[in-house]
Amino acid sequence: RETTPMNPVSPYACAKLLSYNMIKCYRESYDMFASNGILFNHESPRRGGNFVTNKVVIGAVKIKKDLQDKLALGNLDSTRDWGHAKDYVKIMWQILQLDKADDYVCATGKSHSVRELCEYTFNKLGLNYEDHVIQDPRFLRPTELDDLKGDTAKLEKVIDLKFEYTFDTMLDEMINHWMEKL
Asked: Is the model's pTM score more than 0.70?
């Protein structure tokens, strides 16, 4: 939630926290209309292949098409709150239409494990992820956050929070995209 202490554990997260604090500074110091969207993982087929959702989907599709045999991942039991980028863009636009600027968590409020991500994706392709996914210590993070899930209670008080995509339909879109593209 918005009141959760922010303690970034990666350079990427540090940069995001800097921008978050800059927005608050401009809003409070210069009376500017500037809101923060504290966005949890937002995915689409356009997301880079180094992010785990597309890494899993692209890897599974390549395995299905006999372009590779194994997929190396880190912690399969870590969970994330994954939503679709299209939904989050709509929510960001709604936040910018409010009369008062503020900070809001943008998330689905549901978390899924990397294992669930693999299981769903490989099953959709008629494969068993356990036959292809290997855990590689190179991809284990030294400061792994085990469970990330957003609380959108504050946001739900000011907008009608609706999601077009579920975890499954988001993955279906990504799978279909990469089946056609590869």
From this structure: yes
